Structures are given as structure tokens and as C-alpha cells.
Amino acid sequence: MYTNKVLKYFSEPKNYGQIKNPDGLGKVGNPICGDVMWLYFKLGKNKKGEEIIKDIKFETFGCVAAIATSNMIVDLAKGKTIKEALKISKEDIVKALGGLPPIKLHCSVLAVDALTEAIYDYLIHHKKPIPKELEKSHEQIEKEKKIIKQKYKSWITTENKLHKKAKNKPR
Ligand code: FES
User: CATH number of the domain at 4-143, please?
Assistant: First the structure.
């Protein structure tokens, strides 16, 4: 069962929405279930003059756990520097939510991947150095995106074929 915190973060997605002209945008999908998440952030400065994630929002098309973890990662990343945000792990999100059912643990990966991709997007577009680990994660996420495209392409093709067949069937 879900914890009360998971249900709260699912039913009150206060960080849900888009940011116009974001500094970073991450678009990811889960190759197992096909759930999709977009994460946007804008940078600003804190009182010490450090560059931090000032505004951050998400849009997720997915299960309860996907939405709750999306909402939580946004909470965890807000106010952090890029370096600090990169350290947020799926374990941190699950812990902050008071746990997830074991079968739903994989859903938290979507949130971490979306943040990773948004940070990658920011660094690449601002010609900033990309840490090796981030480069590796980005390559892995790109591979998964290709799998999703392939999977959905074949699903859509099959769906269309079935639809055509059903349409042509005499009633
Ligand atoms: S079942 Fe797809 S992310 Fe949860």
C-alpha cells in the first residue's frame, strides 16, 4: 500500500505545470510501462550569490508513484545548486515519501532521469562542462528513449492494423 505522504504528493501535485523558456528541460519515459515525464527548471541566485534552481515544475503522465515521485523530486531540487541537485537519488525520493511498494520502486527512476536530462540540457546549451557520470546517464536514457519509440511504433502499427481489420469486418 501507499504511504499517506505518497497519496498526498499524488493528489496535491503543487509543483505540476510548465515553465516558459526554461533554463533546463528534461523529457523522459519509462521503457517498461510507457509513462512519461517532463521536468522544467529556471535558475536564479540565492542570498550567497550562488546559482540555484529557483523554479521547477513537472508534467507527468503516469501512475500514482510516478506522479508522487515527480512531485517530490521537484521539492527536493528546489533551492539546490546544480551540483547538489545531481546528487539526488531515487533512494532519497523514496525515503522522503516514507517508502514505496517494492513493485513501484522502478517508478522513482523516471523522476531522477527527468532531472538528470534537464540538467544535461542546461549544461549542453550553455556550453558548460558535463561531468562524466552525467554523460553516462544521458547516454543510457537516450538508449531507453529509442526503445520506447520502437515499442510504441510497433504498438501503434499493430493498433492501426487491428482497427482497420475491425472496420472492414462485416457486421
Ligand atoms: S508504472 Fe510507470 S512509472 Fe509507475
Answer: 3.90.1010.10
Q: Tens digit of pLDDT for each residue in 103-137?
A: 999 899 999 999 999 999 999 999 999 999 999 99
Query: Rounded to an integer, what distance in angstroms lies between the CA atom of residue 39 and that of residue 85?
Result: 13
Q: 55 near 41, Cβ under 8 Å?
A: yes
128 grid coordinates: 558548460
- For the Cβ of 29 lying below 6 angstroms from any atom of ligand 1, the answer is no
Atom of ligand 1 nearest to the CA of 110: 3
Q: Which of 12, 17, 18, 33 is catalytic?
A: 33
Pocket test for ligand 1, best of 2, 6, 28, 35 (most atoms within 8 A of CB): 35
* 33 has catalytic annotation: yes
DSSP labels, 26-68: EEEE-TTT--EEEEEEEEEE-TTS-EEEEEEEEEEES-HHHHH
- pLDDT at position 6 is 97
Question: Where in the chain are the domains?
Answer: 4-143
Report pTM. 0.87
